[in-house]
Amino acid sequence: MNGKAGPRAATTRTRLDRGRGALGPALELVHTGRAPTRAVLTAELGITRATAGAVAAELAALGLIRVDAHPNAAGAQGRPSHRLEVAEDGPVALAAQVHADGFRAALVGLGGRIVATAPGCGTVGADPAKVLGSVVEAGAELLRQTGRRCVGAGLAVPSAVTEPEGLALNPLHLDWSAGAPVREVFAERVRAAGITGPVFAANDINLAALAEHRHGAGRGSRQLLCVATGHRGVGGALVLDGRLHTGSSGLALEVGHLTVRPEGHPCHCGSRGCLDVETDPPAFLMAAGRAEGPEVSQLQQAVDLIRTRYPADPAVRTAVEKLIERLGLGLAGLVNILNPDRIILGGLHRALFEAAPERLRAVVADRSLWGRSGGVPILACTLDHSSLVGAAEVAWQPVLDDPLAALT
Known about the structure:
Layout: H1 2-19, H2 23-31, H3 38-45, H4 49-61, E1 65-67, E2 84-86, E3 92-99, E4 102-108, E5 114-121, H5 128-146, E6 150-157, H6 182-192, E7 199-203, H7 204-215, E8 223-229, E9 234-240, E10 243-244, H8 275-278, H9 281-287, H10 298-309, H11 314-338, E11 342-346, H12 348-355, H13 357-367, H14 369-372, E12 378-380, H15 386-401, H16 403-407
Parallel strand pairs: 3-6, 6-7, 8-11, 11-12
Antiparallel strand pairs: 1-2, 3-4, 4-5, 8-9, 9-10
Helix pairs in contact: 1-4, 3-4, 5-6, 7-15, 9-10, 9-11, 10-12, 11-12, 11-13, 12-13
Family: Belongs to the ROK (NagC/XylR) family.
Protein name: ROK family protein
Pfam family, one: ROK
């Protein structure tokens, strides 16, 4: 018996050694839903079926995926293939988001699945250390309640974040000083809470775009442009071949400061008529003649107005038309410069697009060279809490790059 088991074990180990470099790519394929079966995994990675089996078994042993022992033979030819899924009870990443109207913490597993969230807080003070301490405390409590292993932590903030320093360069809609060391402070609070693993911080729209590319409306795009409103202001992001384009120091795609109305409102950047102040929730409420409500955020109030009062309410209809013209002009300029293969819109921009999709598409096509030549697909973002999911994505990235090194 021992003589037979030894060679078999050695063969399995040899296959795994040959496929060790495929562990990360294999995990990413399952994570993003592109390898639902072992047969697809084999084809995508260009490895043998035996090696794919060894790779899948190792990822399962690490607690990252589940290999279905009862293969689905429906429609299959030849030997049916085992199904591959992320492990529902596997490790999680701690995701945190801070915005003008509050903060939230969540635990996010592979596949972009939110496992647990802590109730959001509606007050963000002037001291980043206190705010980040509170959001980490909320996340640590979720970890205690669920008993999950944590692979790392990611933070989304409404500011450009420098690389590699991790400074929030322009937290304009928070009462924080320019250049606040958010990643360092966040990491200190994470370590103080006893949470291990790498720690990251990035711009909230960048992270939303990354999440949408992997799990939402951006799947399959090679040059994905995301433009979205936060609770205040406008942000943009570009995902090229699956990776965020952040420029030389993390500050690329500050699309909110494109001028779309030269005679418009003064912007925080010193210019006038920027997307940031012409197409965000406060701009919409002003155009619709509505005051900010005391019970909900300006973003939620603006989105609710569009979804419940457009087109019946003349003031809301006029506001939608105005902002679509401004947004379309900005998107056309970005199309001319970047030539993306897809545009996705989030926040208030998603609601504007859903209200009058053909009108926005027409404005972009009319104002852009590439639009006239066939049009760039424009879609609404599909994920809830996309910035939180994106914050988890950057925390998961070391595991996706090298599961064995990250977890063992």
